[in-house]
Amino acid sequence: MRQSSHITKESLLKHAARLFLERGFHGTSVEAITNAANVTKGAFYWHFNSKLELLEAIINEFETDFLDGLIQDVTHTSGNALQKLHRLTRYNAVFAYYNPELCISFTTVSAEFSGTGTPIEKRIKAVYDKYRSFLANLIRTGQEENVFRRDLDTEMLARIVIAFHDGILLEWWRNKEEISGRDYVKTYESVLLKGMMQLLNEGRADYGL
Q1: Is 35 in a helix, a strand, or coil?
Q2: Residue 164 burial by CB count (10 A; 0-12/13-18/19+): exposed, middle or buried?
Q3: Which domains does the chain have, with CATH numbers?
Q4: 19-72 residue pLDDT tens
Q5: Counting beta carbons within 10 angstroms of the beta carbon of residue 92, is it exposed (0 to 12), middle (13 to 18) or buried (19 or more)?
Q6: What is the rounded CA–CA span in Å between residue 80 and residue 77?
Q7: DSSP element (H, E) containing 46
Q8: Nearest-CA neighbor of 77 among 85, 184, 61?
Q9: What's the rounded Cα separation, in Å, for the pair 55 and 207?
Q10: How many C-alpha atoms does 72 have within 13 Å on its Cβ side?
Q11: pTM, entire model
């Protein structure tokens, strides 16, 4: 019974994320979610008090499964900051490939709630701030190691990396039938990593990538 309840909750989260991506949070009803998940409204309200509480659960899942997992994975990767950033881009790509609705719905919902001043907006911003802080520290380390450019602001670079990633996901989702995710990832890595690398007087150094 407990396992069945867990499956029902996961199904609600999965289908809600997809519907929020397709219709927006405000354009999605509880009925649409229960119909998509093939469960009753009673089952919905057994797990969540409201649609807003379900959204909070999706945000928590994104933070725990994606962001905390990424931070742990990159932190335990050996090598310099450039190699760690390379690992970060791969983690992003693999996670998004297997969890596209979760990743992209987080991005679209963040835009939907931007400027509302609601607790949800503040919660989403806290997740982005956590991501930005980790990236900024990684970039700062890379600048100290002389593998990242020092002529660009650390905080701005961190924001650009996040914006670049969010934009890539949205563009891939819109054109996923025409362009392979592998090609997107390859180009993303090339533009991001080479754009941030420090060019030495002797030429481009080999950092083991």
Answers
A1: helix
A2: middle
A3: 1-49 (1.10.10.60), 50-196 (1.10.357.10)
A4: 999 999 999 999 999 999 999 999 999 999 999 999 999 999 999 999 999 999
A5: buried
A6: 9
A7: helix 41-47
A8: 85
A9: 41
A10: 7
A11: 0.85
